[in-house]
From TrEMBL:
Name under which the protein is recorded: Tryptophan synthase beta chain
Gene name as annotated: trpB
Membership in a protein family: Belongs to the TrpB family.
The keyword Amino-acid biosynthesis is annotated on this UniProt entry: yes
Residues bearing the modification N6-(pyridoxal phosphate)lysine: 109
Coiled-coil residue windows: none
Length: 418
């Protein structure tokens, strides 16, 4: 199976951002995206695309999705003004948080997991497989499978099962089977390879519930659409609460699903600045971070053409971050497109900046954010210090998840003995 290959960088100046037409029928966002998969997967992806398109026009499907998002997930999540944190950023600015931490299971991942699980059921597939890194997507998938009575198998790198034993237990409690992957670096990218292998073998019965806005077409599109509920709600809420659009929106970027979920519904409003914050790890040297768009180059990984962390031979580099959920060497192709067209910009925040963001929000507002989301919070604090936040700025940060899962990591990083 072709997993990756090197390509030359697309010509940035040839692309300009277009909102409504992406992805095109080949699954391309500008020159990014597509389906770089073996022949055996092409028909499976075509079947998925057809079923997804049909579900979009199916009123019964859309109604059930809406109702479950409301009564099970707890949507709409609030758009919450944080005055004391705003003060820390810069006097005179106004920061709002989109509270995905309040969604059932404590993060945005459930939005996508629920949508895809309903799609699987509509397609008559009763066996769900998924990959997971830190375990968050595995838990979200196991959760919706329990809700809908679907069989659930989660592929997880052996190293990750050891690092995230609590999430392994959660998934089992929810009725899922967790398969430990011992190939390669025994982490997320190996779990994805193993899940793809299972899918090809069991395609008649099986639906691959992919966790982020990456992978081959139509996944980046499907995940974006299911996560766009975040930005669609936020757009209505900010107009209602402030009577105008925000000047700046920030979100952390791992594979890019929470960020595209809030960016996309605002991207056609020209003057809103969109900033994606990647994990800077300990430092921006190979193997010590996960800042794919900041420090990577285009290439193919897991079926899509996008920015990648790779060495000169095209080998995928190891990643490093205090937040396990941002630890992916690729990124969704729509973000590569937003970067190349200049519609969004991407920056890097290191572990220390994230820790600072987490502590600042906890103390100023009584909200303990996930370490992932804390990258965006910490970066915003730095922008304030550098005088980059004009008076009167209206800002939204996507608070992708709550921090309970990170407490042991944070205590260790702060040298606190529990
Ligand atoms: C998984 C996760 C992320 C990163 O994934 P994206 O697909 O980039 O959103 C961010 N925040 C939280 C809380 C997560 O669990």
């Amino acid at each position: 199976m072709q997993i990756q290959k090197q390509v030359t960088s697309p010509n940035a100046s040839s692309q300009s951002y277009q909102h409504d037409f992406y992805p095109d029928e080949r699954g391309r966002f500008g020159s990014f995206g597509g389906k770089f998969v073996p022949e055996s997967l092409m028909t499976i992806l075509a079947e998925l695309e057809e079923a997804y398109e049909a579900s979009r026009k199916d009123e019964a499907f859309q109604t059930e999705l809406r109702e479950q998002l409301h009564s099970y997930v707890g949507r709409p999540t609030t758009l919450h003004y944080v005055p004391r944190f705003s003060e820390l950023v810069s006097p005179g600015c106004k920061v709002y948080l989109k509270r995905e931490d309040l969604a059932h299971t404590g993060a945005h991942k459930i939005n996508n997991a629920l949508g895809q699980a309903l799609l699987a059921r509509r397609m008559g597939k009763k066996r769900i497989i998924a990959e997971t890194g830190a375990g968050q997507h595995g838990v979200a998938t196991a959760t919706v499978c329990a809700l809908l009575g679907l069989e659930c198998i989660i592929y997880m790198g052996e190293l990750d099962t050891q690092r995230q034993s609590l999430n392994v237990f959660r998934m089992k409690l929810l009725g899922a089977e967790v398969r430990s992957v011992t190939s390669g670096s025994r982490t997320l990218k190996d779990a994805i390879n193993e899940a793809i292998r299972d899918w090809v073998t069991n395609v008649e019965t099986t639906f691959y519930l992919f966790g982020t806005a990456a992978g081959p077409h139509p996944y980046p599109r499907i995940v974006r659409d299911f996560q766009s509920v975040i930005g669609t709600e936020a757009r209505e809420q900010i107009l209602q609460q402030e009577g105008r659009y925000p000047d700046l929106i920030l979100a952390c970027v791992g594979g890019g699903s929470n960020a595209i979920g809030i960016f996309y519904p605002f991207a056609d409003v020209p003057d809103i600045q969109l900033i994606g914050v990647e994990a800077g790890g300990t430092e921006l040297t190979p193997g010590n971070h996960a800042s794919t768009l900041v420090a990577g180059r285009p290439g193919v990984l897991h079926g899509t053409l996008s920015y990648l962390l790779q060495n000169d031979d095209g080998q995928i580099l190891e990643t490093q971050s205090i937040s396990a959920g941002l630890d992916y060497p690729g990124v969704g192709p729509e973000h590569s497109y937003l970067k190349e067209t200049g519609r969004a910009s991407y920056v890097s925040a290191n572990d220390a900046t994230a820790l600072r963001g987490l502590q600042a929000l906890s103390r100023s507002e009584g909200i303990i954010p996930a370490l992932e989301s804390s990258h965006a919070l910490g970066y915003l604090l730095e922008m304030g210090e550098q005088g980059k936040i004009p008076d009167g700025s209206l800002i939204i940060v996507n608070l992708s998840g709550r921090g309970d899962k990170d407490m042991l990591t944070v205590a260790k990083a702060l040298n606190v003995q529990l």
